[in-house]
Amino acid sequence: MRKRVVVHKEGFGTNPRGAIASVAIVAAMAAGLAGCTSTPRTPAPIVENSALSAPPVVQSTSPGVTPAPVVPLGPASSAPVEPGFYRVKPGDTLYGISRTFKQKPADVSKWNTLPESGQVNVGQLLRVTPPGASAPASATAKSAQPPLLPTPEKSAAQKPAVDKPAADKPAPSEERQATVAATAPKGTFVWPAHGDVVRKFGASGNKGIDIEGKVGQPVKAAAAGKVVYAGSGLRAYGRMIIVKHGNDYLTAYAYNEKLLVKEGDTVKQGATIADMGTGPGGTPALHFEVRKSGAAVDPMPLLGAAGG
């Protein structure tokens, strides 16, 4: 008798000591820092990628539901997608996909048996309409984007003749990995909370920083912007807020005790947006992330000198 082997991929977890994946907020940052046929219910195939950080977790499935196999990226990723489904592209987040198809992140996560962190992976096929419902053709044709992806470039017909050759422009992957110091000097963001940094960016895969404080102390907006996510749809982050800043940046604030803003609100830099809560480990802290065009960046070089 042949034995069936189920392979689980590591994704986001529920332990804050690991690392806080997508919305891109979001659920959010939101982003995220959380503006996106009737077929048998089968979990979507999983391919390794990254989004909002959280510690590794073994994905579980509901009783009687067989996980879909892990598949490599390749020609299959460009195969036609049936109505009601969407194939994850680079830069996508659960929040962004849900927003595109006008669904709740928690529903999309449930339909696809995603991990609690809400991680989605490049090439993964997701159900974006309720089981048994058909999706409008126009919706399935859209490309789900996280809140802060850059504005698409103009087509060749729209570009002026004096534009530089395309070869002079960095590839998307290079642009995402480029340092942000040139466009966001130190002091661009203010500290979102008073306290010591107890976990730095990059530690065990951490995509942000953890600031220790006291339960109920103010959590402030690091910069002026618009709230694009405020909720607790992703349990790994607790109550979380994602704020969008212009066309490039978003910030995410997780583990809050109480949210003081709602989606669509405009906030000023330094405005109190939440009360600090505790992470899964029970320590009062704020998990803070900064995203540039969907990619996580170290918040420390962007924060003012007066920390905590």
From TrEMBL:
Biased composition (Low complexity): 130-146
GO terms, molecular function: metalloendopeptidase activity
Protein keywords: Lipoprotein
Region (Disordered): 128-185
Claim: Lipoprotein is one of the keywords in the record: yes
Basic and acidic residues: bias regions: 161-177
Record-annotated LysM domain positions: 84-128
Keyword Transmembrane annotated: no
Protein family per UniProt: Belongs to the E.coli NlpD/Haemophilus LppB family.
Record protein name field: Lipoprotein NlpD
Organism: Caballeronia pedi
